[in-house]
Design brief:
single chain; mainly alpha; globular
């Protein structure tokens, strides 16, 4: 196994653990508080600092690393520490100013994020937000610290750092359910502090020494500001997309924001594990090909990654559409999370799933643009996609309610992915996208056939199982596991029959490794 593949696999495992702990956090929140005023207020309050400062954090993560290597090569480690300290100090000052302003205008900020909140719901959200807005300083500094560690070869720390965060949040929810919701919010704030503390030992081992210097006129600071602006705008455009959905959801039934939140996290769970792992390992490889002007290798690698995303995500998409209700019921229903909450969440999940494949493709192609040092095109694309999302959200929410909001997001993601591919083709020439279209059509046929078979199988298991298993949760779990295993086998057989190249190559590689293993064993 190559170093890149090993890195991708290890990162995939770390990301999976991180996603599972995050998912467990959401399940416990649902069980403890349901889709209620408390959860709507808590989720909204969590998202306000994320939207306000994640843009800066994400932008630093994209632009800092090239600057790090440039300064280290030209001037050495001491200058790197000086530059990093300068940027970190500036970020801390900006964070403190934002916290002060945000604390003063919290009620107005909450109204922007949840215009449908009134009375008790608005009051609780405002109080939660006044506490969690302090997390801005930790969100911002965590982004820069993670980038410094990545540049120094601490490859997996950025993936690991969310695990203690999720664990503390889980404890916060459990303790809060036995005491009161404000205890939950304060402990959640401590989770952000823990993220930073977790990275400090690795920071010291990497040779970082902090300096109390602030110089906004420094040439390197000017350069990173110039580089950061397009990425910064792009990050905020994507955050706006999320805010629009939550704001419109606040005009619907109580619990709609929570339902959208759970559905979206379920939707991106599998995408995140696969795409983050592939794109993190692929990004430096694409950047290398771009810097060498090896466009042929660049395009081949990009299409290869897109095809892998399609092959894995299309059957997952079909499965999620078919089994959205039993999945949500098994994971969340119970305690304060009732049948109505399951309906709202599963409806959202089903319509979110339509954009699952496009979400993965969009992320891969965006990395392609960043590799070519083009940060403007993805921003323009994101702005166009948000415009599409707004238009369809306004139209579909009237006819479909919460399902319309989720579907509008899927439509905008699909539109954005197609637009990005067209833009990249104009930039580097023919991509060989026919290969991906061919792969998509074949996987879609295989997945639909698989979906029909496993749907009938699930219904059969439920009818027969009711006579032997009286607890519905166990029956749902058995049905989902059996259908997943049978579905995977059916999909694999159909993929071979339909002659999907990557599947056949993968089987051939496994076969060769098995033969080599047998030979060595002899």
């Amino acid at each position: 196994m190559s170093k890149a593949k090993k890195s991708a696999v290890i990162l995939m495992i770390i990301t999976l653990i991180s996603k599972v702990t995050g998912f467990l956090r959401d399940i416990i929140l649902a069980k403890s508080f349901g889709a209620s005023i408390i959860t709507d207020a808590y989720i909204t309050a969590l998202n306000i600092p994320v939207v306000l400062f994640t843009g800066i954090s994400a932008s630093l993560g994209t632009t800092y690393i090239p600057m790090f290597f440039k300064i280290k090569t030209e001037k050495g480690q001491d200058e790197v520490n000086k530059f990093t300290s300068n940027v970190l100090n500036i970020v801390i000052i900006l964070s403190i100013l934002t916290i002060i302003i945000g604390s003063i205008f919290t009620p107005y900020i909450v109204k922007i994020f949840a215009m449908g909140f009134k009375g008790e719901e608005l009051e609780i959200t405002t109080r939660f937000s006044k506490i969690l807005i302090i997390s801005i300083i930790f969100i911002a500094t965590n982004g820069l610290v993670s980038s410094y560690l990545l540049a120094n070869g601490r490859f997996y720390i950025s993936g690991l750092v969310t695990i203690p965060f999720n664990i503390i949040c889980i404890l916060a929810i459990i303790i809060g359910s036995f005491t009161n919701s404000y205890v939950m919010v304060w402990i959640t704030l401590l989770a952000y502090v823990a993220q930073l503390l977790f990275q400090i030992p690795f920071l010291k081992k990497s040779g970082y020494k902090h300096k109390l210097n602030v110089d906004i006129k420094d040439e390197n600071v000017k350069n990173i500001i110039y580089l950061i602006l397009p990425v910064f705008l792009g990050s905020y455009v994507n955050q706006i997309n999320s805010v629009i959905n939550r704001t419109l959801a606040s005009t619907l039934d109580t619990g709609s924001i929570t339902a959208l939140n759970y559905a979206n996290k379920l939707n991106i769970f599998a995408v995140g594990v696969l795409v983050i792992s592939i794109s993190t390992v692929m990004y430096p490889m694409l950047s290398k090909f771009a810097s060498q002007n090896n466009i042929k290798a660049f395009k081949w690698s990009l299409i290869r990654c897109i095809n892998i995303v399609i092959i894995v995500m299309v059957p997952v998409m079909i499965g999620m559409i078919i089994f959205s209700t039993p999945t949500v019921s098994f994971l969340f229903e119970g305690g304060s999370f009732d049948a109505k909450d399951t309906y709202l969440t599963s409806t959202s999940l089903m319509f979110y799933s339509f954009g699952m494949v496009a979400f993965g493709i969009r992320d891969i192609v965006s990395r392609g643009f960043y590799s070519l040092q083009d940060t403007k095109t993805p921003v323009k694309n994101a702005m166009a996609a948000v415009f599409i999302d707004i238009i369809f959200s306004i139209i579909l929410i009237k006819k479909m309610g919460i399902g319309g909001l989720a579907l509008s997001s899927s439509i905008s993601v699909i539109f954005g992915a197609i637009l990005l591919i067209i833009s990249l083709r104009r930039k580097v020439g023919r991509l060989g996208i026919k290969s991906s279209i061919n792969t998509f059509l074949k996987t879609l046929i295989a997945s639909i056939i698989m979906g029909v078979i496993v749907k009938y199988l699930y219904d059969f298991i439920f009818i027969i199982g009711e006579n032997f298993i009286h607890k519905e949760k166990y029956l749902i779990l058995i049905g989902l596991i059996v259908c997943s295993l049978v579905g995977a086998v059916i999909y694999l057989i159909l993929s071979i029959l339909l002659n999907i190249t990557e599947i056949k190559e993968g089987i051939e590689q496994i076969k060769n490794r098995f033969v080599n293993f047998i030979k060595k064993a002899r």
